[in-house]
Amino acid sequence: MIDAEGHNRKMQELPIWEKPLLTVVEAAKYFQIGESNIRRLTREHKDQDFVLWKDNRVYIRRKEMESFLDTINEI
Q1: Closest listed residue to residue 42, CA positions, set 16, 74, 73, 68
Q2: What is the CATH number of the domain that holds 63?
Q3: Where are the beta strands (DSSP E) in the chain?
Q4: Is residue 65 part of a domain?
Q5: How many domains is the chain built from?
Q6: Is residue 14 part of a domain?
Q7: Rounded-to-integer distance, Cα 68 and Cα 52, Å
Q8: pTM of the prediction?
Q9: Which end of the chain has fewer CB atoms within 10 angstroms, the N or the C?
Q10: Can you give the residue range of the structural domain that contains 27?
């Protein structure tokens, strides 16, 4: 994308706290939980609203994951 000054710019990336969907790596950083624990939670709770599978990749719905984490006592 070229701006008014003629500079080539990539599209601005959303801050992690505004993204509706997070990758495992992003979710680990955002929630301060290890990647292996995020992956385990998605496997153990694959029918929960916070888990979204696309082909072989898993995405975490940020707001739903926040709500889910509020309901559990340990990871």
Answers
A1: 68
A2: 3.90.105.50
A3: 21-22, 51-54, 57-61
A4: yes
A5: 1
A6: no
A7: 14
A8: 0.78
A9: N
A10: 19-71
CB 65 within 8 Å of CB 31: yes
Q: 42: closest CA among 55, 29, 26, 61?
A: 61
Q: Express each pLDDT in 22-36 by its tens digit.
A: 999 999 999 999 999
Q: Residue holding tokens 């990647």?
A: 35
Per-residue pLDDT tens over the stretch 33-63: 999 999 999 999 999 999 999 999 999 999 9
In a domain, 3, yes or no: no
At 4, which amino acid appears?
A
Whether 32 is covered by a domain: the verdict is yes
Matching residue, tokens 């153990």: 44
